[in-house]
């Protein structure tokens, strides 16, 4: 049932301005014309507006805004990412659900999406504000066959993929602040939280959380004082439908992930550095209780930060606190 409806959407979406006849649909899907009609009624329940004209056929007039496991999957052109989607109207955190599923053996590529999170979290248990209906709050379960120390590479990989997805659908330029934040016009629009369950030399699973602000207004961020977040709506002046956005993001992540498995981290590293915030510029580092100024040179093979100090020596930093904006002067 599910996959028939998915194929139906795929067929109709291929010819957006044309009618596709019931005859063609029934031949392609190998079901009767009355079964096609029943599927159309089900799609309408999920928010599709479908025009049906006798002797011409069917066409989609409007895709649904509504998020559900079905609407996320229909029209999603991935092979494995999102092959299972769990959708919750409201939850503490999609990370919690995904960890639970991961422990129970959920398949690689399972995606958990929520309309609202009441305990959304960032790194170091910071709060991630996840207002109802206004953003993309989702967690991916991944089971990569790589060494545990390579896991941070997957944060960088998804950051590049999200930037590519956002640049595909808007005219804005996005960049990545090491290691996990996406910025536009100096404001944070998205964050990535990669958590891992591993044994010494083997990853059991990774839960990668992605939070993207979509339709918030400026006043929705009044409670955040430290980094003036932004949303797609604030930046573009228009509201966005989250469903196609989720699909483009998943498609880009899957594409880059497959490239990573074939070609390794190097192409991802290059793409990441092309989009890196303040690359080649002075930044302040506070590590080992010392503050010093250096030049942000790039990232290494593991995704760690390379900063050159004033004597020209390179330092590899994994979790140092970086004062990005100051360059030592603020
Ligand atoms: P982070 O630790 O880099 O960023 C958290 C910080 O960002 C907060 O301390 C706050 O200052 C600021 N902040 C909080 N909410 C927002 C927001 N909506 N937009 C911009 N800035 C904000 C980044 O952590 C990783 C966030 C991952 C969120 C996803 S959502 C789906 C999944 N579920 C879950 O609980 N977390 C992940």
TrEMBL record:
Top-rank taxon of the source lineage equals: Bacteria
Q: Name one GO molecular function term.
A: DNA binding
Entries under HAMAP family matching the protein: Bifunct_BirA
Q: Where is the BPL/LPL catalytic domain?
A: 70-261
For this chain's UniProt record, which GO biological process terms are given?
protein lipoylation; regulation of DNA-templated transcription
Q: Name one Pfam family in it.
A: BPL_C
Give the E.C. number(s).
6.3.4.15
Reaction it catalyzes: biotin + L-lysyl-[protein] + ATP = N(6)-biotinyl-L-lysyl-[protein] + AMP + diphosphate + H(+)
Q: Which InterPro entries match?
A: aa-tRNA-synth_II/BPL/LPL, ArsR-like_HTH, Bifunct_BirA, Biotin_CoA_COase_ligase, BPL_C, BPL_LPL_catalytic, HTH_11, Transcriptional_repressor_C
Q: What's this protein's name?
A: Bifunctional ligase/repressor BirA
* Top EC class for this record: ligase
Q: Which UniProt keywords apply?
A: ATP-binding, Biotin, DNA-binding, Ligase, Nucleotide-binding, Repressor, Transcription, Transcription regulation
| Amino acids binding biotin | 117, 121-123, 188
């Amino acid at each position: 049932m599910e996959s028939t409806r998915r194929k139906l959407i795929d067929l109709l979406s291929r010819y957006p301005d044309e009618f596709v006849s019931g005859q063609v649909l029934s031949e392609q899907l190998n079901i009767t014309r009355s079964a096609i009609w029943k599927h159309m009624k089900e799609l309408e329940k999920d928010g599709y507006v479908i025009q049906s004209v006798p002797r011409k056929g069917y066409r989609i007039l409007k895709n649904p805004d509504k998020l559900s496991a079905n609407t996320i999957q229909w029209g999603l052109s991935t092979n494995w990412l999102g092959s299972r989607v769990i959708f919750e109207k409201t939850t503490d955190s999609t990370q919690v659900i995904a960890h639970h599923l991961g422990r129970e053996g959920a398949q690689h590529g399972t995606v958990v999406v929520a309309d609202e999170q009441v305990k959304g979290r960032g790194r170091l248990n910071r709060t991630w504000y996840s207002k109802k209906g206004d953003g993309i709050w989702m967690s991916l379960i991944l089971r990569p066959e790589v060494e545990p120390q390579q896991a941070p590479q997957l944060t960088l990989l998804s950051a590049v993929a999200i930037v590519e997805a956002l640049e595909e659908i808007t005219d804005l330029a996005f960049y990545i602040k090491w290691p996990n934040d996406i910025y536009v016009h100096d404001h944070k629009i998205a964050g990535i939280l990669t958590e891992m369950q591993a044994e010494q030399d083997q990853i059991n699973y990774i839960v990668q959380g992605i939070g993207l602000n979509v339709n918030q207004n400026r006043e929705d961020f009044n409670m955040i004082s430290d980094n003036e977040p932004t949303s797609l709506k604030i930046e573009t002046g228009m509201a966005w439908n989250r469903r196609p956005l989720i699909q483009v993001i998943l498609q880009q992540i899957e594409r880059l992930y497959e490239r990573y498995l074939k070609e390794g981290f190097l192409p991802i590293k290059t793409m990441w550095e092309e989009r890196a915030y303040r690359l080649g510029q002075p930044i302040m580092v506070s590590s080992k209780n010392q503050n010093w100024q250096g030049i942000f040179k790039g990232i290494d093979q593991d995704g760690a930060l390379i900063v050159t100090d004033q004597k020209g020596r390179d330092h590899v930093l994994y979790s140092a606190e970086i004062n990005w904006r100051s360059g030592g002067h603020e």
